[in-house]
Amino acid sequence: MRGMPKDRERASGRVDHHGLAIAELVDASPPDADAVSRFIEEHEFPIVEGTRCTFVFQGKAREVRLRHWIFGLATAERFHRVPGTDLWYHVMEIPDGSRVEYKLEVEDGRPAHWITDPLNPHLAHDPFGANSVCYGQGYEVPAWSREDPLAAPGSLEERVFHSDALDSPRRVTLFRPARFKETRRYPLLVVHDGGDYLRFANLETVLNNLIHRLEVPGVVAALTHPADRMEQYRDSESHARFLTEELVPMLEEELPLLGTPAGRCLMGASLGAVACLSTAIRHPGFYGRLLLQSGSFAFSDIGNHDRGPAFDPIADMVNRYRSQPFAVSDRVFVSCGMYESLIYENRSLVPLLRETGMDIRGPLWWVYD
Asked: Which of 12, 158, 301, 331 has its CA 20 to 30 A from that of 263?
């Protein structure tokens, strides 16, 4: 209730509705069906009011929970039912400019199941499916991620070749920038999980925009498609050899590339970021640029890490490197969402990398604090 300290409010299960759109329904005793219908019709969901977001579910259920992946908060937060109705709600505070992915967990006579929010049309897709998206106050979709009609498009070409290192055929999608010329020399960007970046992160659009705006030079990108990323990305010597001794030399022989460390960049997210770092550790100085996004850098200061046995090879690699760090590249860009569970590991890695003399860059709010 109004004026109740937050710790007591949570403990009691009571919510301060003061100033919120949901208040009129909650305070009615009970609201009629028409009032509920008008409430649904008149709002977009979740309802964002300053830093407070109200999530709403309508339907018969025994229990409804908000499932999200904000590090530091309980991953399941219970909804409250508006008395006498089938309307459920949960109020959560998120900072301005936030973007949060979530699902709803519903118990309705069947076993508890997760669904996207039926009242929210905004979805984010990834290799595992889709999540609903809540945009906090002031959030703006980055302009460089949206298609710009003024940006001339590059081209994509599918290639397949046999890798001796991996003993299998490997598929690679080549991106060439607009107005590609054989008489010029281009830097090479090698992207782990390239197909996922194209499908879920609009990478082709992003490259076209950044090149058009002169924020990056014209670049050739090799987008890889792993057959078994859990095997290849966890500090695999074979994967590092595939990139460094097969893929990059082949492309540098065939295409007008710079062919220098400053002209080679490895990029990846999650396990892909791990593969970037482990490859650079195995071949120090070969790649002059690394772009590491939300790396799954499991490690332990004492005892065991808590990421599960699948992460043991990664923790072994990171622990070895932390015990004897050295420069593996010239420049490294590190980023991670501030709400992600991996934020601690990524933040911990930054000063270690910086101490080696490498130029470490990233979001100003945590790399340069």
From this structure: 158
Task: Compute the distance between CA of residue 214 and CA of residue 365 in angstroms, rounded to an integer.
Answer: 24
The first and second tokens of residue 225, run together, are: 């498609």
User: What is the pLDDT at residue 15?
Assistant: 65
Cα separations in angstroms, 226 against 33, 54, 244, 273, 289: 53, 40, 15, 14, 21
Q: Compute the distance between CA of residue 346 and CA of residue 366 in angstroms, rounded to an integer.
A: 10
Phi, psi (degrees; rounded to nearest 5) at 26 = -65, -40
Q: Are strands 52-58 and 99-107 parallel, antiparallel or unpaired?
A: unpaired
Residue reference for tokens 């003061």? 18
Q: How far apart are the first and last CA of the chain?
A: 37
Q: Mean pLDDT across the stretch 74-85?
A: 94
Going by the DSSP 8-state scheme, the letter that residue 186 receives in this structure is B
Q: What is the number of other CB atoms lying within 10 angstroms of the CB of residue 342? A: 18
Question: Minimal CA–CA distance to 101: which of 75, 81, 62, 79?
Answer: 75
Residue 306: Cβ-neighbour burial (10 angstroms; 0-12, 13-18, 19+): exposed
Beta 87-93 vs 52-58: how paired, if at all? antiparallel
Instruction: Compute the distance between CA of residue 248 and CA of residue 264 in angstroms, rounded to an integer.
Output: 9
Q: What is the pTM of this model?
A: 0.88
Three-class SS of residue 296?
coil
| Helix (H), strand (E) counts: the chain | 12, 18
